[in-house]
Design a protein that fits this description.
four-stranded antiparallel sheet, flat, Butyryl-CoA Dehydrogenase, subunit A, domain 2, binds flavin-adenine dinucleotide, alpha+beta, Butyryl-CoA Dehydrogenase, subunit A, domain 3, single chain, 19% strand, 2 domains, 5 helices, four-stranded mixed sheet
Length: 294
């Protein structure tokens, strides 16, 4: 694999849904020294040519009884449909069927029913790749649009001299730098082995913030370029198609919101702050009778 002669794919999402990780229905049943896998996964990048799949499958009846396996391609592992996609078309994204696919027990990763821990660990690099990738994509789009605006003329002047154009560049750069700062702060927190809950929140914020920023920035770049931005003379239209996926995969941005608020509430309500209680700064803060919650 390290020589680059074998390729892999990660198979998590199922036709019944990708957001609900613990709702997986692909099943792995222990038979002697093997597990036998049955079920299907969809939207799997690299499925078309993968030699090995990382597969999450149900191994028990409790809701969190999911295990992770390395599954070798075999006649029982069938890629039957490769999707026509709006963007990111080079990935060979397919639907994978497991039909009595036999997997040696030694291919179980970690412990049986322990895939939740592996999933949580995997999602850190996966979501950070989406976040960091979005920064690069947005930067490329801004640079193309800003250079274009410096050369393209309308009404006798460079279009960058119109506030309506240059402020779009300014807004885009501000959002790019803000997202970049968050992604780098998150990377530092991961490297420093920060509290897992804080890391989960920061990773989700980075993924959401950077991918939403990239979509808006590429869209602004297309607007700055006018009609030619919509053609394939420039790569802006491709960047726009690619950027759209980033808000969906590696956990949708709604799922990122779910994680962010969950971890924030845990942090907020789980600790008693020793800092000054700003709520008590209000002039009538002592009016307890007006603080009605039910
Ligand atoms: C091109 C492409 C490549 C992909 N690559 C891979 C891959 O390599 N491996 C892999 O395993 N998966 C892959 N995916 C799958 C991707 O991660 C899922 O599509 C994504 O997680 C969403 O799952 P879903 O499509 O089943 O949508 P659903 O889970 O059905 O969600 C539909 C909508 O409901 C919303 N929603 C669901 N639950 C909640 C909730 N609790 N709160 C608020 N909103 C909610 C979602 O945000 C979304 O808007 C890929 C997808 C695409 C399109």
């Amino acid at each position: 694999m390290l020589e680059g002669t074998l390729t892999t794919a990660e198979a998590l999402t199922e036709p019944r849904g990708g957001s609900d990780f613990f709702g997986a229905t692909t099943r792995a049943t222990r038979q002697g020294d093997d597990y036998v896998l049955n079920g299907q996964k969809r939207f799997i990048v690299g499925a078309e040519g993968a030699d090995y799949f990382l597969v999450y499958a149900r191994t028990g009846d409790k809701p969190r009884d999911i295990s992770a396996f390395i599954v070798e391609r075999s006649p029982q592992v069938v890629v039957q449909h490769v999707y026509g996609l709006m963007g990111t078309r080079g990935g060979g994204t397919g639907r994978v069927y497991f039909r009595d696919a036999r997997v040696p027990a030694e291919n179980l990763i970690g412990r049986e029913n322990g895939a939740g821990e592996i999933f949580n660990q995997m999602m850190i690099p996966e979501r950070m790749t989406s976040a960091a990738g979005a920064l690069g994509l947005a930067r490329a789009a801004i640079e193309i649009a800003a250079r274009y605006a410096d050369r393209r003329r309308a009404f006798g002047q460079k279009i960058r001299e119109f506030e309506g154009v240059s402020f779009q560049i300014a807004e885009s750069m501000t959002r790019l730098d803000a997202a970049g700062a968050l992604v780098r702060e998150t990377a530092r927190a991961i490297d420093a082995g920060d509290d897992p809950g804080r890391v989960r929140r920061l990773v989700s914020e980075s993924k959401k913030c950077a991918t939403t920023m990239a979509w808006d920035v590429v869209n602004a770049a297309m607007q700055v370029m006018g009609g030619i931005g919509y053609t394939n003379v420039y790569p802006i239209e491709r960047l726009l198609r690619d950027a759209r996926l980033m808000m969906i995969w590696t956990g949708t941005n709604e799922i990122m919101n779910l994680v962010i608020q969950h971890e924030y509430y845990k942090e907020l309500l789980g600790t008693r702050s020793t800092a000054r209680d700003v709520e008590m700064d209000a002039v009538n803060a002592e009016t307890e009778g007006e603080k009605v919650y039910e």
